[in-house]
Amino acid sequence: MRITVFHAALYAALACTSISAAYAGFGNGNGNGNGNVGVGNGNGNGNMNSGIGNGNGNGNGNWGGFSGNANGNANSGLANGNGNGNGNYGLGNGNYNGNANTGTLNGNANGNGAPDANGNIGYGNGGTGNIGAYNGLGNSSSTSGNNNIGAANGNFNGGMFNGNGNIGSFNGNGNGRP
What we know:
Elements: H1 5-24, E1 37-39, E2 63-65, E3 89-91, E4 121-123, E5 131-133, E6 149-151, E7 167-169
Parallel strand pairs: 1-2, 2-3, 4-5, 5-6, 6-7
């Protein structure tokens, strides 16, 4: 195949796009700052992350003042800084957790309050033992959508034992459907 100026320009554009997309990553900064009541809660969470599945499900479901702030920021790598600063009551709780981590599975599930009756911490979680926001929803079995950390994990699963134990965002969804 003969490489033309068009091909060279196309390859250069694709190369730049890939490098830029790889730096930004995906699945970062989701499900932060939801369902807070009071003043100054759930601010500045899940920012400046690169890599995959970083800075999700932080600063949710806090009551009182100045809680669940500045969590899950400036992480790189895989599944870092998720599920921090959720479900706190009172003043000044669950701040500055899960920041500036590199590598894999660092800085998760810190600075959280007590779980609800189903063992969940955060906002809009179903199932059991979920931390963050919008985890464990719409599953056909109680054995699915449990023990997830971050945002939008373990949802809409059919069958049994699907969508459990995920960290980050948008993991373990839509499995075992007829």
